[in-house]
Amino acid sequence: MTNASTPPVLDIVPMLAFAFLLMAPLALAGIALVNAGLGRSRSAAQALLGSVAVVSVSIIAFAGIGACFAGTSGAAVFTIAGKSWDWIGTGPILLRHISKSPMESQLGVLFECLAVALVGLIPWGAGADRLRLAAGWTTAAVLGAFVFPLLAHWVWGGGWLAQLGANFGLGAGFLDGGGAGTVHVLGGASALAVVWIAGPRRGKFPKDGLATAMPGHNAAYVLFGCLLALMGWMAFNSAGALLWLHAEPAALVVTAINTMLAASGALGATLVVTWVRFGKPDASLCANGWLAGLVTSSACAALVQPAAALFTGLVIGIATPLLVEVMELALSIDDPSGAISVHFVGGLWGLFAVGIFAPQKGQVLAQVVGIATLLGIFLPLVYLLFKLLDRFVTFRVDADGERLGMDLRELGGGAYPEFVIHRDESYH
């Protein structure tokens, strides 16, 4: 006989997931601070206002339209060779009837709202010091309403990438619990498209010499942002493990440990590389290495052993400063935040590492199919959409606005009004 005074037993999994998702916005705050700190002082206020606006627009676009396509029920399901292929979700606009959905579905939508905000922040940082606010808002709207929901459905909503295991016996299907591909590779691909379309900052690549150094204006912002990002990442990875990988609560401690190990290994490797190359550690590159380790953990923190998580961090920590240098000196890509090296390459490596270290047979092939999809479909899709968008909403600020700074040009005042901001006169 049950004691009437005994409280009902609550399902701990959704409660844990909800608690983690309340902490996840710290990742957004961390990336916003890193983006602002790595830009110029005369664009700091615009960078942070743009971050808040991008987060807002991304969430509204996803909640209003995108969530319709990211849902777990398939609107376009094709049968090929006797196998079911789920291509796109369906659902009501503006999240109607969400209160009547199971709690796990509601938590999935909350996770995706936060994830799409992070997707929008990544290209905003890559376009620092020359990308207009209007361009940041509109790219975030396109990503939130159409591009991210399609990929989210394929990976998290029971779409065809998730079905690779059932249809072809490729491990457990494409696995991406924390969003290494769905968030970071997509965001990094968007950053690459923005950089290609907007071009480098004026004076960055003079015709008569090497690339001009344009260091970030506030290393304290950058490094504090890294610490905030760690907390947010542990929350993202833990919530993703519960919601998308259906992990048991007992596995969450290892997930958090693996997140810290990947970031710590990456930071240590980057610190050594920069110390050897330059004689002293480089703060901004070390921050990039730390974030790249976190990005890598988004794929593998809930799926691998601690030694493997540390190894993946060490590899990306060695690669990140070298990739930043190659991007700038060999490819003439001006990416102030390092988003392409950190999010795009770091996410790809994390996804592949899951295939190497995950115990399921055939998992590496499932991960390769997912990576090929990201590179072969979403990179060109984002570039074409942004190129078309640039015809209607010009991405790049005018030359005079770039010379004065984005704060004065778009906000009418600077982030540091009590200080004289020295201007670059090396424009060619």
Summarize the structure.
The protein is mostly helical and 428 residues long.
Number of domains: 1
Number of helices: 15
CATH superfamily (homologous) name: Ammonium transporter AmtB like domains
Low-confidence stretches: none
The CATH class is Mainly Alpha
CA radius of gyration is: 21 Å
- CATH domain topology: Ammonium transporter fold
Strand content: under 5%
Task: Report on the architecture of this protein.
It is a single chain. This protein has 428 residues and is mostly helical. The chain has a single domain, classed as Ammonium transporter fold. Helices cover 66% and strands 3% of the residues. It has 15 helices and two strands. The protein has helices at residues 12-23, 25-38, 44-70, 103-126, 133-156, 164-168, 180-198, 219-243, 252-278, 283-300, 306-330, 339-357, 363-392, 399-404, 406-411; strands spanning 74-80, 83-89. The protein has a two-stranded antiparallel ribbon. Helix 2 (25-38) runs antiparallel to helix 8 (219-243) and helix 7 packs antiparallel against helix 12 (339-357). The radius of gyration is 21 Å and the shape is globular. It starts with 11 loop residues before the first helix and ends in a 17-residue tail after the last helix. The mean pLDDT is 91.
